[in-house]
């Protein structure tokens, strides 16, 4: 991906309002990796990524930024919650599994590209297999004229299968073991080997059971998988995938504050939190992790950590880990104006979502501009008076305003319903100003 920092920020601007610093820092980090890859080997290996720590209270867009990046970037990218991991030796997911997940993600990307490139080959394979089932082949001894007829039939059949006309017919397929394979990336590579040999054994025992009656429609899906595993070169895919994960992979470590040990809650601290932090060190620093596809070095993987740090502070992380996230960005809390922009300027904003949902019921929902300002104002006020939950407040506030209308949508079929500022205030004034009420309702 060779987008310039400006282009990355431009893209993020469509979905995330304000938070300029965070966007800039991330965009720059991504570009730096691209620049690094253009250098000669000696220099290339000297340049380490600068990991990023995003700090900002809840609901201000931390996860949203990463979610959007993940969608846009064609680089291997995974988002994991730090709080989900347990220290090595305890039951649960160990931190190395995040690197394995990254490799799996990378493989999926490279494989999809290869499938795209070999689209016509794969299509042909699928088509031939299905037509073969629908039209039994002629015996060798058939006469020339019969063979001619057969060829014409074959062509006609191919067209009908291709157009979807035969989708409801059922055919019998012998499915290869790949279709019943299951994957658990959580397992260490030694166990994966065991798992693989088990599934091989079962696959041979159950050969007969692999015969299945399926509709042509489903067969198309199942055979595609078979085709890509037969026609694509898995070794070169894995090599390329490992290379990309090593040099371009990004791991987004969400909820990192949840594994920090805060002084305030000392008594209740889970002893394994510090263990998880210690386990993270070598991975963030750069080490080799073995996966079922081969060993991967984590030196150049970019880590972006994010956390609200309400209870704990970044300084509550063990010092070694703090040092491995040299770039700090703080996300601003949302003002009334930002909330207004989130409602009106983001692609797929909440207002658009509600309008689309109610459109299904045949009702035209519109918000007049003054009403949107009121919503932003009251949401901001509720954030001030109770907890600041950022843009998430908009969800609860809108839900409150629209609950009756949404419930009675059938009564408004074919009508236009305009949400006015008056209605917003009617529904909310009392709730927002009453501390107890708003704690429960908003
Ligand atoms: N700056 C923003 N621009 C647009 N939408 C936003 C912004 N901030 C938050 N949102 C919206 O608010 C919701 C919550 O945001 P998000 O998941 O990013 O919160 P977060 O910062 O990760 O909070 P937490 O610390 O609780 O995980 C999302 O639906 C997101 O679309
Ligand atoms: Mg989040």
Describe the structure.
By secondary structure, the chain is α/β, with parallel strands linked by helices. The protein folds into 3 domains: 5-109 and 240-330, 3-Layer(aba) Sandwich (Rossmann fold); 122-231, no CATH class; 336-429, Helicase, Ruva Protein, domain 3, CATH 1.10.8. Helices cover 54% and strands 11% of the residues. It is built from 18 helices and 11 strands. It has a 5-stranded parallel sheet with strand order 2-5-8-1-9, sandwiched between helices. Helix 15 (369-385) runs parallel beside helix 17 (421-433). The longest helix is centred in the first third of the chain and has 22 residues, at 96-117.
Q: Quick one: CATH superfamily of the largest domain?
A: P-loop containing nucleotide triphosphate hydrolases
Order of helix and strand elements from N to C terminus:
HHHEHEHHHEHEHHEHEEEHEHHEHHEHH
Q: What count of helical segments does DSSP give?
A: 18
Which second-level CATH architecture of the largest domain applies?
Answer: 3-Layer(aba) Sandwich
Domain module count = 3
Bound molecules: adenosine-5'-triphosphate, magnesium ion
* Beta-strand percentage range: 5-15%
* Helix percentage: 40-55%
N- and C-termini, Cα separation: 42 Å
Q: What is the CATH top level name of the largest domain?
A: Alpha Beta
Q: Could you say which structural class the secondary elements and strand pairing correspond to?
A: alpha/beta
Mean pLDDT: 87
Inertia-based shape: globular
Radius of gyration: 28 Å
Q: What is the spatial order of strands in the main beta sheet?
A: 2-5-8-1-9
Briefly note the CATH topology name of the largest domain. Rossmann fold
The main pleated sheet reads as:
5 strands, parallel
Low-confidence stretches: none
Number of strands: 11
């Amino acid at each position: 991906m060779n987008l310039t920092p400006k282009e990355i920020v431009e893209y993020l601007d469509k979905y995330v309002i304000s938070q300029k610093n965070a966007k800039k820092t991330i965009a720059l980090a991504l570009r730096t990796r691209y620049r690094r890859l253009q250098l000669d080997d000696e220099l290339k290996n000297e340049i380490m990524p600068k990991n990023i720590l995003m700090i900002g209270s809840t609901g201000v867009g931390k996860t949203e930024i990463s979610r959007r990046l993940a969608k846009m970037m064609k680089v291997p990218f995974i988002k994991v919650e730090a709080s989900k991991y347990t220290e090595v030796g305890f039951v649960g997911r160990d931190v190395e599994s995040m690197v394995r997940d990254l490799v799996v993600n990378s493989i999926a990307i490279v494989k999809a590209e290869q499938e795209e490139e070999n689209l016509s080959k794969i299509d042909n394979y699928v088509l031939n297999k299905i037509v073969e089932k629908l039209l039994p082949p002629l015996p060798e001894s058939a006469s020339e004229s019969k063979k001619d007829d057969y060829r014409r039939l074959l062509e006609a059949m191919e067209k009908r299968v291709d157009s979807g006309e035969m989708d409801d017919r059922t055919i019998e397929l012998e499915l290869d073991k790949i279709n019943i394979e299951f994957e658990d990336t959580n397992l260490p590579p030694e166990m994966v080997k065991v798992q693989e040999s088990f599934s091989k054994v079962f696959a041979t025992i159950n050969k007969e059971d692999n015969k299945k009656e399926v509709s042509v429609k489903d067969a198309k899906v199942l055979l595609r998988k078979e085709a890509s595993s037969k026609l694509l070169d898995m070794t070169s895919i894995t090599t390329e995938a490992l290379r990309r994960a090593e040099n371009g992979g990004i791991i987004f470590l969400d909820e990192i504050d949840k594994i920090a040990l805060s002084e305030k809650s000392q008594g209740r601290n889970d002893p394994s939190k510090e263990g998880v932090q210690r386990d993270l060190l070598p991975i963030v620093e750069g080490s080799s992790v073995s996966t079922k596809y081969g060993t991967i070095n984590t030196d150049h993987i970019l880590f972006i950590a994010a956390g609200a740090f309400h209870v704990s502070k970044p300084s509550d992380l063990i010092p070694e880990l703090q040092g491995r996230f040299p770039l700090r960005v703080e996300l601003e809390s949302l003002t009334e104006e930002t909330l207004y922009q989130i409602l009106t300027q983001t692609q797929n904003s909440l207002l658009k979502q509600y309008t689309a949902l109610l459109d299904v019921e045949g009702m035209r929902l519109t918000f007049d501009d003054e009403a949107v300002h009121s919503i932003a104002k009251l949401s901001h006020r509720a954030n001030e008076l109770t907890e600041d939950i950022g843009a998430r407040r908009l969800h609860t506030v809108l839900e409150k305003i629209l609950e009756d209308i949404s419930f009675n949508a059938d009564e408004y079929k074919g009508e236009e319903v305009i949400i006015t500022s008056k209605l917003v205030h009617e529904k909310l004034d009392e709730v927002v100003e009453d501390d107890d009420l708003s704690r429960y309702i908003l």
